[in-house]
Amino acid sequence: MSKITHEEALALINPFYDLFRSDKRDWDKGFDCLSDDWKSYDGNDTFRNKADTRPFLEGLFGIVPDINVNTLQVAVKGRCSSQHVSM
């Protein structure tokens, strides 16, 4: 199993989280970094797939155009990387 560094993890996930930073938003980069089977769960059994998430976020950012999420912590373990953010 290969190991991933903190910086490598950030490079992988930041394009998506940049969608939540109005001054860095790039829709193509943000969604290109997600796998085709990516899901955003909003309940135990409900989720949006990758194609459904973009229009949802575009609508959200239309309501809150100056949203700015800051990365507080990135934890890297195995093949999974989690990011804690604040708004």
Structure, explained:
The protein has 87 residues and is α+β, with helices and mostly antiparallel strands. It has one domain: Nuclear Transport Factor 2, Chain: A, CATH 3.10.450.50. The protein is 37% helix and 24% strand. It contains three helices and four strands; from the N terminus they run ααββαββ. It has a two-stranded antiparallel ribbon with strand order 1-2. Strands 3-4 form a two-stranded antiparallel ribbon. It is globular and about 40 Å long. It starts with 5 loop residues before the first helix and ends with a strand. Residues 79-87 have low confidence and may be disordered.
Counted up, domains total 1
Biggest β-sheet strands, sense, barrel: 2 strands, antiparallel
* CATH level 1 name: Alpha Beta
Q: Note the overall shape.
A: globular
Identify the strand order in the major beta sheet: 1-2
Q: What are the secondary-structure elements, in order, as H or E?
A: HHEEHEE
- How much is the average pLDDT? 83
Give the strand content: 15-25%
Rounded to the nearest angstrom, the radius of gyration is: 14 Å
